[in-house]
Amino acid sequence: MNNDIPRKIIDITGVELTPGEPAVCFGNTEQGFECCCDECDYFLLCFPEFDPKNN
């Protein structure tokens, strides 16, 4: 993971997010919290198949 990307961030709803780690991120709805993905600044990190350099 890039050094400019925080390991953990707190969403506006107070949920702790883990950018690029969708399996453990509390914002993915699988841990009982609401989905925070749509508003996450690091949304695309959870999709490694997306590479902005390969359009």
Question: How would the blueprint of this fold be written?
Answer:
Layout: E1 9-10, E2 16-17
Antiparallel strand pairs: 1-2
Explain what this protein looks like in three dimensions.
The chain is low in regular secondary structure. It is 0% helix and 7% strand. It contains no helices and two strands. Strands 1-2 form a two-stranded antiparallel sheet. Strand 1 (9-10) and strand 2 (16-17) form a beta hairpin. The radius of gyration is 11 Å and the shape is globular. It starts with 8 loop residues before the first strand and ends in a 38-residue tail after the last strand.
Unreliable spans: none
The H/E string reads: EE
What is the rounded Rg?
11 Å
What is the strand content? 5-15%
Number of strands: 2
Name the descriptors.
2 strands; globular; 55 residues; single chain
Quick summary:
With 55 residues, the chain is largely without helices or strands. The chain has no helices and 2 strands.
